[in-house]
Structures
1.
Amino acid sequence: MNRKASLKIFETPLILAEAFAKEFKIICDEFILKNGFVNVALSGGNTPKLLFEILAKNYISSIDWKRINFYWVDERCVNAESNESNYGETERILFSKINIQNNIHRITGENNPEEEALRYSGLLKSNLPEINNFPKFDIVLLGMGDDGHTASIFPDQLNLLESDKICEVAVHPSSGQKRITLTGKVINNSEKIIFLITGKSKAEVIKDIFENKNESDRFPAAHIKSTEGEVIWYLDEEAGSLLNQKF
Ligand code: 6PG
């Protein structure tokens, strides 16, 4: 059951990132006012980097960073120094500009993958509130690959959507790179699930997810439906270019 899903389309990746940065502050302020803190899970890849740059440039003093607990949706099994590291890139672009350390909970990509999936699962279980027998994030930021993967749940590993574990070890289908990922049930257990998707290479999958639903079950991103809150799709015009319905 998807309580609520909405779609917003922006002219360019920059306009999208600026709009979402503003929304991110609003949503964080609401959770901080209500609970005193906010639990956020970040994705990696290229799309969020523009958002992190805008947050680092314009929001250092206007967001209460010390009250945001940062986690990751997924991480590549590499050292933090690697430019492949989702944590490493977020640290380089954003966290290095803000003086916060103890509310950043990275997935330790350099650890043994199976052991790290267990360790991170235990961390989430002890740090986050639990509903539906799974940890609950307030905000989860997702991207989507041009194969319809999200987090590190790839089309050839759809079982990770239904896993009863909190984190699992995934394998990138072409590079063979191991990754630690949240499972679909944890992602869907979140209150605000926000996709940030840009670029023409995503347009075909977006069209199938929104307008050819019987074609879209093979895409992991199509299975992201919040059981507790809402899914908001932020697209740029290129990613939304094949949609018939105009938003
Ligand atoms: C990762 C991400 C992954 C990403 C998509 C989209 O670790 O790579 O979590 O799910 O969001 O691959 O990546 P782009 O933003 O680079 O298109």
2.
Amino acid sequence: MAVSRWDATVLTLFPQMFPGPLASSLAGKSLNQGIWTLKTLDIRDFASDKHQTVDGTPFGGGGGMVLKADIVAAALAHVAEAPGPRIYLTPRGRLLDQQTVRDLAGQPGAVFLCGRYEGVDQRVIDEASMMEVSIGDYILSGGEPAAMIVIDSVVRLLPGVMGKERGHRDESFENGLLEHAQYTQPRVWHGIEAPAVLASGHHQKIAQWRLAEAERETQERRPDLWEQYLRAQQE
Ligand code: ADE
């Protein structure tokens, strides 16, 4: 696979939140190695009045504040050259899943718009044909942690970030199943033995056990994924 850089561009009112957790572990190491880049822009820099206003009260009332379309449009125009899809993090968006993460990792980068307050004027989201992405059915105080989660999940898939020893093949979601449970030394801990087959050295038996466990646990823990998996098997 051709190794090319992945460029993340983040539009936020809190640029100081970055790189935050992305400076550590796999993401931080690969950032230092130049496998991916991170650029943050302060949305407030695009305010044009002397009070640096970025938001307004929502039409129709209802409290909170809404980021203005012209401010967001100016910020987006400033990063017009940045590669990849324009992503607005919002609980109204499509739920992030591993397929979306894989698709994003196949692009040269992405531009993330982090909302605060009650949200962003929808007209600029629509006009820029932004992809609206949610990381789950709960409300964060802003899109920044959501952007970090999307970036983290993409970065670990970039070529050269994870070791070759273990591909992404066995991971949860890579084959539509949750991953089997894992065990390490000692073989007996608190009187509980790790599954004997795992220490047997029989690669085929181990693979069979792992698949059976992955199926059993997916069925038990995530009936929604199990349904999808069964449907995919029938295709
Ligand atoms: N902003 C606030 N909550 C969010 C969520 N669940 N996903 C993405 N962005 C958000």
3.
Amino acid sequence: MTVVSIRIPAKVTLFGEHAVVYNKPAIASTIPVFIDITGRKLDDRRLLINLDGASVQIKGILFDRISGGHTVLPDDNYLSRFTSYIVTGLDICEDELKINRSGYEVSIGSSLPIGAGLGTSAAISVGTMAMCLALSTHYSTDDSHVKKMVALLAWKTEQRVQGMASPMDTFTITYGGIRYIKPWIPDTEILNSTNKFNIIVGYTPKRYTTAELVKKVKNLRTKEESVMNMLLDVVEKIVGEARDAVVHGDAEKLGILMNINHGVLESMGVVSLEHSYIVKILLAAGALGAKTSGAGGGGAFIALARNREHAIVLKNIVEAFGGKVVALELYEKGFTVSYRE
Ligand code: PMV
């Protein structure tokens, strides 16, 4: 029976998160941190999810001091949110291919906690879709028609699970590299830079889900529509300027734009206290720019260093303040697929 392995990179948002939900452009990139999904079909209709090497949240462990046995107490809320991307993705894939419901064994390995805010839920959606299509159609990673289908159907999965989602994460993770996102099509464009940027991507614990944070911004927009619309226009302008700065390799300008974008995210109420500190500390240590990246509420952040050595200094500072650093460079590829009989 065919076994399919999908290697999916995580992503970082450089500019334009939240505004992209309102059809504004954004810039995101894959990073060299991976989630691996391996899958095969089963003869019955069960779905078995192995979480070997994936760090997921549980509520606790019940230890029986007489028998020595223990029971893992699941964090039902978290686990059902996490599995819903897989279940929904498989449903959408089978409906699209007009095939009967099948059983699957899916194994997930991840060095990132699922839900850390580096596009991990989008990575699960992309990986599930890429796996399901591979088990039925045996395509190659370079097949542009299948890639488009994976990006669109993984986006549909995110929308169905979260209620509201832009195509940014699923398209970036599918295609890879630094991507200019055009949600109104939806499509993306690769931005080839003359410079290799020295970045620091890290995260702190994320206190809210992406769906909750998207809703928070939506509520603010309902209350203060014209002010919020002006902020969204500001983000659009930042993204336009950042697009040119990426292409021309202008790190100084990108840093300034990151700081302005971070200020807008503060105004939208999605920056956590830890991130406010970390961003200020990084700037005091000479970073060209720093910002919350993605939905916020803790989660991911990105900073721009002056050179590789400076990036390592900034990494040490972040870690001293309790943040975790996962990448010091961007990545140029999207997901890949391989087969084993
Ligand atoms: O934090 P993440 O990686 O889940 O990114 C969310 C990005 C948002 O713009 C806030 C939402 C979206 O759907 O684009």
4.
Amino acid sequence: MRHLSLSALAALALATGPVVAAEKPNIILIFADDHAYQAISAYGDTRKLIETPNIDRLAKEGVRFDRALVPNSICGPSRATILTGKYSHRNGFFNNTNSRFDGTQVTFPKLLQAAGYQTAIIGKWHLVSNPTGFDHWHILPGQGRYYNPPMIKDGKQVQHQGYTTDIIADLSVEWLKNRDKNKPFLLMTQHKAPHREWSPALRHLGHDKDRKYPEPETLFDDYANRGIGVKNQDMTLEKTFTPLDAKFTVPAGLTPEQLKEWNAYYEPRNKAFREAKLEGKELVRWRYNRYMHDYLGCVKAVDEAVGKLLKFLDDEGLAKNTLVVYCADQGFYLGEHGWFDKRWIFEESVRTPMLARWPGVAKTGIVNKNLTSTLDLAQTFLDAAGVPADKEMQGASLVPLLKGETPKDWRKSFYYEYFEYPTPHRVIPHYGVITERFKLARFYVPKADGKPDPDYWELYDREKDPNETKSFFADPNYADTVKELKAELEKLRKDFKVPDQMPKEAYGRLFMPPKKKK
Ligand code: CA
């Protein structure tokens, strides 16, 4: 018997008789939006931007994944991938502009539900169509608001008072309290924070006591050794930062009392900013510090929400039999290369924080450096529950990695794809291959006939150039590397059934007719 894996044992239990809840693990996915690993203290960023003691608990009591990559680095597509265990080109959700999730697809919550789990999703959904596969859903419409949000509860609109991150945490605990205790559960608790425009809870305004944050090495990157991919973008603190981003404009939904508190923090600081008449680098520095105050303020509430949930598990004696995963839908730029936002195959964008705790099964306090992905979560949760995965799923279970074992055939390369163009942020569609050391990417603006134009490649060497400031594609010393990576890329495209030509709607507005001027 001892040679049987946990999933095999669970399957055996399922086949041989009724299973009591205690035998099947509960599963909680705590999901954030745009939470950069640089803003989790367990990841040890050299800038020491913030302390996140509650999220860090998962690293101490579980596994920290250091190379967890996303298949398509934006909100909706990343969520569709987690649910289906499939790439965008297979689940049909390519971009946030005109994609709509096909809820008739097989998803891991549906499979868990069919296997006797009670399932719930609470918080940001962002997939346009209504959730399927959940006994209970209580979601933000679209991007949702930071303050006093309207939400949709099992199809009906409801109005909440308070700060959205706190509300999502409280609703999650409430659902857990009222669940059917005879069944195992899946809870997906999904925060809006710290998504743009980074609006903190009022209690966190001034949390940093006007700290001047250490700057990333590349805050003033001039993109000199890079190509069309990077030079075309529109996501800099210098040129793209809006009055709403800067908090010169008030965010939606505040009550008059809340607005008074909000203004008490921002108004004197905005006045001082206007009087200083900053320009050039000093203006970018001011924006970086304002951005960090607001973004990290949002993260503080997310960390508190994690603490609330973990405490509930402790208090109820549920911690031991519950697999808890924390991750985001992608990474995020915190001033590196002068940017905010995501989308790229480059590291701060493509790499999400991912931490997992499963007492008695997962190792404690270990760091996993394998190429892993949010693509793997569906199969991981199904494996943990002893439920067979769907054949069409394209990831791999992380359960062996949680136990500290890396399967011999674990991936050595990862396929990446990005589509949405030109708005927002003008990041040119690209796809590529990522290995431990290299990234080879093909950037292309698809023409009306669907063929890429121009045929343009970039190569990055993270060993020689960890900040990814230079493309080595044209360097003759890298000719063999380029050849090998191109072959690997073609193999991955074949393995993952990537069509030669994507449907036109994959590219967001690119193929949509321009709006007529009124
Ligand atoms: Ca996101």
